[in-house]
Amino acid sequence: MIMIVYDDVISLIQRTGGITVLFNEIQSRLSRDNIEYTVSESPDVCNTMQLMKIFERYRSIPASRIPADISVFHSTYYRVPSNKVVPVVTTVHDFTYERVVGGVRKMVHSWQKGHAINSSDHIICVSESTREDLYHYYPNVIDSHVTVVPNGVSSVYHPIAGVMKKQQVLFVGSRASYKNFNNTVESLIAHKDISLACVGGGGFSNAEILYLEQCIPGRYTHLGYISEYQLNIEYNQSICLVYPSLYEGFGIPVLEAFASGCPVIAVDTSSIPEVAGGAAVLIKSGASSEISDAISALSCDKVRSDFRDKGFSQVSKFSWERTYQETLRVYEKFQ
Predict the structure, then answer these.
(1) Strand order across the 281-283 sheet
(2) Best exposed site among 4, 19, 76, 99 by fewest CB in 10 Å?
(3) In this structure, which topology does domain 3-152+319-332 adopt according to CATH?
(4) CA-CA distance, 258 to 241, in Å (whole number)?
(5) 81 three-state secondary structure
(6) Where are the transmembrane segments (predicted)?
(7) Helices (DSSP H) in 14-138: which residue ranges?
(8) Fold match, 3-152+319-332 / 168-315
(9) pTM to 2 decimals?
(10) SS3 call for 222
(11) E strands along 71-226, which residues?
(12) Distance between CA atoms of 153 and 321, rounded to whole angstroms?
């Protein structure tokens, strides 16, 4: 019988997010199938400086906290046992820090990730794009020790019959510079009857509010961190999801939007083409003029309906059940 040990370090880093969802979905199905697993708790942490100290001190989980009879250890975020007492599986989600982040944060994260990758018996990548990045940054990784296991999408996301539409576009997640938030704002200057609704990513900064007021005064709102149930409603009510990120390891909001019947505008880069297939309006660079033109195209009912149907077809290829089954096959290599 296979038995898996996880840590819970991801809970110290994010309260919600794709990685948290991934491991919750896997663990819930292990429980469903009566497959034994345990979660090794991590120390509490309160702020970024403490988190960096945690990574330094707890980059390795003590071997004494790993039961002797387990089949595999799978960290939720780039940790390994202090002694190589069990096989180690690591999931690589993206190379955002390596590509778009600088300074101390990049150094700490990249060291932590590299230590985990070089100590792992098997590596799971969430997309083919992420696997190619893995080979780029770690060319000595053995191909047979790498498996691509795509993320899934929650069944919460679905079309709602008769929902009242809003003249709004949706922006979900972080508004870091590589996410192209400012270009999204600029794209709406010409669309006087369309507003911008943002979800997650923290509240607007003073600089963001100043820019929003300069570009689209009174035509924006921040919905905060909302439930999946409420997010599904927002997807259903919106003209489209604008997701013009210049780099993604996967891009779960693309699938959430598709499942909800919401068309997507995204940049043709990194993992987006393989996740979106031909079902999104893919633009070249994420320039505000490109986003604006794409919004204009999707304002046509026929065009929006066509992309809506394509989205339903594409999202049917992904599910958390598929993610679970393919992850389980990786674990079984060490049974």
Answers:
(1) 220-222, 195-199, 168-172, 240-243, 264-267, 281-283
(2) 99
(3) Rossmann fold (3.40.50)
(4) 9
(5) strand
(6) none
(7) 18-32, 48-57, 96-100, 103-119, 128-137
(8) yes
(9) 0.91
(10) strand
(11) 72-74, 80-81, 88-92, 122-125, 146-148, 168-172, 195-199, 220-222
(12) 9
CATH tag, 168-315: 3.40.50.2000
What are the C-alpha distances in Å from 97 to residues 113, 132, 190, 193, 320? 10, 16, 34, 37, 26
Q: Per-residue pLDDT tens, the chain, 335 aa: give them.
A: 789 999 888 877 776 678 988 999 999 999 999 999 999 865 544 444 555 554 444 445 454 455 556 789 999 999 888 777 789 999 999 999 999 988 888 888 899 999 999 999 999 999 999 999 999 999 999 999 999 999 999 999 999 999 999 999 999 999 999 999 999 999 999 999 999 999 999 999 999 999 999 999 999 999 999 999 999 999 999 999 999 999 999 999 999 999 999 999 999 999 999 999 999 999 999 999 999 999 999 999 999 999 999 999 999 999 999 999 999 999 999 98
Of how many residues is the chain composed? 335
Q: Domain extents for the chain?
A: 3-152+319-332, 168-315
Cβ pair 79, 41 in contact under 8 A:
no
Question: Do the strands 88-92 and 168-172 form a parallel or antiparallel pair, or are they unpaired?
Answer: unpaired
* CA neighbor of 40 nearest in space, from 69, 71, 76, 14: 76
Phi, psi dihedral angles at 242 (to 5 degrees): -100, 115
214 secondary structure, DSSP code: H
